[in-house]
Write the structure tokens for this entry.
Amino acid sequence: MELRHLRYFVMLAETLHFARAAERLDIAAPTLTVQIQDLERSLGAQLFARGRRQVALTGAGEVFLVEARAVLARAEQAERAGRRAGRGEVGRVALGYVASAVYGSVMQEQLGRFRTAWPNVQVTAREVPMSELPGLLTHGQLDLGFVRLPLRVPPGQRAHVLFEDVFCMALPGDHRLAAGHTIRPRDLADADFITPEQVAGTHEVARRGGFMARIVASPGSLIAVLMQVSLGAGVAVVPSVLTATVRIPNVVFRPFAGEPITSEVAMIFRSREAAPATQKLIAQFRAVSSRRLTPDWGDSSAPSAVSQRR
């Protein structure tokens, strides 16, 4: 039994006239007769009582009509859903991100726009250790990743930079350098460093200062790093985007003297993405022009908290 058998049956049940039903189906009347006979044979039941001048549904035909209409309705619904999925109007997109990618607000802005434009696409997002993100994309467990460069992007994936910011120093409020307005890298030669996932900023500060960074802890997330700083365990090189969004007691931010130490937040994605919904989201993010976020240090000289102003 095929869907065409059900369509032929329903049309005949609604017209109760072989010639009219065949005309509406755009097939020959003898063909319709053969198809209905095939259907009855496969069911082992007579669906129509055929007289010389009229056709009527049997009891079995009336029961089968209800089910046939339901099946055809489900088939049409499935076809519509498939077409919408093919156009990227429905589906699911799974995102992974490192925490520092969220502080710049680009993700929030773009995902808000996407959800408004495509409300039937389910978008999920979760924080993932940066070292794991490329592998999760490769194995299809995530569709997009948001990372802080530098990061080795494996074959079959590409990166698109969303924004750039600069690194700064996070210090305990009572640190000897907390009272200054800027920090020279060489003044940190004897400091204990607490490092986030992306250690490139720490290594660049040490290179400019001409020393080897003494790393005493690597708790991972930026919040965990700042908590360690607030407890006096050491200092940390962190993205300056935090100055506008995070407030933790006994932590101050200070810019570095000299040429800014820059860092980029990027989206990574599969080069040959097949899912239409994911393709739409990739295209939207790729339309974002990269820009540098410029921190406003405001009243960051106050040692009790991080400034909340940009």
Summary: The first strand starts at residue 48 and ends at 50. The longest helix spans residues 59-86. Residues 91-310 form a domain with the D-Maltodextrin-Binding Protein; domain 2 fold (CATH 3.40.190.290). The chain has ten helices and twelve strands.
